[in-house]
Write a structure and sequence with these properties.
Blueprint (H helix, E strand, L loop, with lengths): L4 E8 L5 H12 L2 E10 L2 H10 L8 E3 L15 E4 L23 H11 L3 E7 L9 H12 L5 E9 L10 E9 L21 H6 L17 H8 L62 H7 L12 H10 L3 H16 L11 H11 L6
Parallel strand pairs: 1-2, 1-4, 2-3, 4-5
Antiparallel strand pairs: 5-7, 6-7
Helix pairs in contact: 1-9, 4-10
């Protein structure tokens, strides 16, 4: 008789559910019964999307509120916690205020949940820029607090995942910290990208193989201004508004920094550049052949959401949800390795590429006072 292992997942900053769905896919492959315990997000549309798509989610278990208003002592017990804490203050596109910003300190909600509930494991996600915010001090502080949380503390494995190396058709690079309670005596190793090296991660394949069904939701076209259409027609695949030699009448009147993503058209034979959830004109990700922005369903495909995943809200809200999410396939790969670790099953691994930084950060903490 095969014993099915039960894991109970709690989630903060849950967004539309990219992490949760990937975790469920991984659980199904590993003989794990993953139960949704509870989730939290402050955005009502994201909560609506999560409720519509994530197994076990209910109006009583998915809490729409500011994370700082939660009382973790009243939350049901969990064996695992996931939290993709806000990246605004860690992104390389910005001031990198880190833990000194408005959003940076929100990682502490994850720390408080770990202290109150002491789950066996956690998965925390943020942008690659978290490593350098506040000259690396912010990341050092976060690692220190996470490692000391819970009843026994956690063995941490921070790693910079380049998701295009794991079957995701997008150059999306994120730091993911996996922690396993010291009481279990286990250490997580990042999965190798070798099993995925022969996969086609081009955007052409992502968007056309198979074609998006006519019945798919969230697939409305953007009404592009004629000037935008003319500008896109003058930009070659893989190029942007600043390196395409645009005629003067189509050039942008921009001073200062010139972001390479502005009106950048996808290259059909390469992974997409990073899909974002915010930004004005020129930031909506543009088709390589058709002079238009991608639809939300096309963005969702690049983020590896299935076509039957239904997003709640208007076009702008759905765009934000998709851009802020963790790619489903990326989450699945990490949770697959995590569940294998917990079950004592071997899998191809790679060395943690943040190990040396982790060691430097811990040494730095010995000299700093963050009180």
């Amino acid at each position: 008789m095969v014993t099915v292992k039960i894991e109970r997942l709690g989630e903060l900053f849950s967004g539309p559910g990219g992490i949760a769905l990937g975790a469920h896919y991984a659980a199904d492959k590993n003989g794990v019964h993953l139960e949704h315990a509870w989730a939290n997000d402050y955005d009502a549309d994201s909560v609506g999307t999560y409720l519509k798509n994530i197994p076990g989610a209910s109006e009583s278990s998915v809490i729409c509120s500011d994370v700082r208003d939660l009382d973790f002592s009243e939350m049901s017990q969990i064996t695992g916690l996931a939290f993709g804490f806000p990246c605004n203050d860690f992104s390389l596109v910005g001031e990198q205020k880190g833990v000194r910003g408005n959003y940076g300190p929100l990682y502490r909600s994850g720390v408080e949940a770990l202290k109150a509930l002491s789950p066996n494991w956690f998965v925390a996600e943020n942008v690659g820029g978290i490593r350098s915010a506040n000259e690396g001090n912010s990341f050092a502080q976060i690692l220190s607090e996470l490692s000391a949380a819970g009843n026994a503390g956690y063995q941490l494995t921070p790693h910079l995942y380049r998701f295009e190396q794991y079957g995701v058709p997008q150059a999306r690079h994120r730091v993911v910290i996996v922690g396993i309670s010291n009481s279990l005596g286990l250490k997580f190793e990042p999965p190798s990208g070798a099993p995925f090296k022969d996969l086609d991660v081009s955007v052409r394949s992502a968007l056309e193989s198979p074609p998006i069904p006519a019945s798919a939701s969230n697939n409305e076209l953007t009404n592009q201004h004629p000037r935008v259409v003319a500008r896109l027609e003058a930009i070659a695949p893989g190029k942007n508004a600043f390196n395409s030699g645009l005629p003067e009448e189509l050039q942008l009147n921009v001073k200062g920094a010139r972001l390479s993503q502005i009106y950048r058209r996808l290259h059909p034979d390469k992974p997409s550049y990073t899909v974002t959830g915010s930004g004005g004109g020129g930031t909506h990700v543009y088709h390589w052949e058709k002079p238009r922005a991608l639809t939300n369903r096309e963005r969702a495909r690049i983020q590896t959401f299935p076509d039957n995943f239904q997003f709640v809200g208007g076009k702008g809200s759905v765009r934000r949800q998709i851009g802020m999410a963790v790619p489903v396939k990326g989450a699945e790969v990490i949770f697959d390795a995590l569940f294998k670790t917990l079950n004592g099953v071997a899998y191809p691994t790679t060395s943690p590429n943040l190990e040396s930084f982790h060691q430097q950060a811990m040494r730095l903490l010995e000299r700093l006072d963050f009180d």
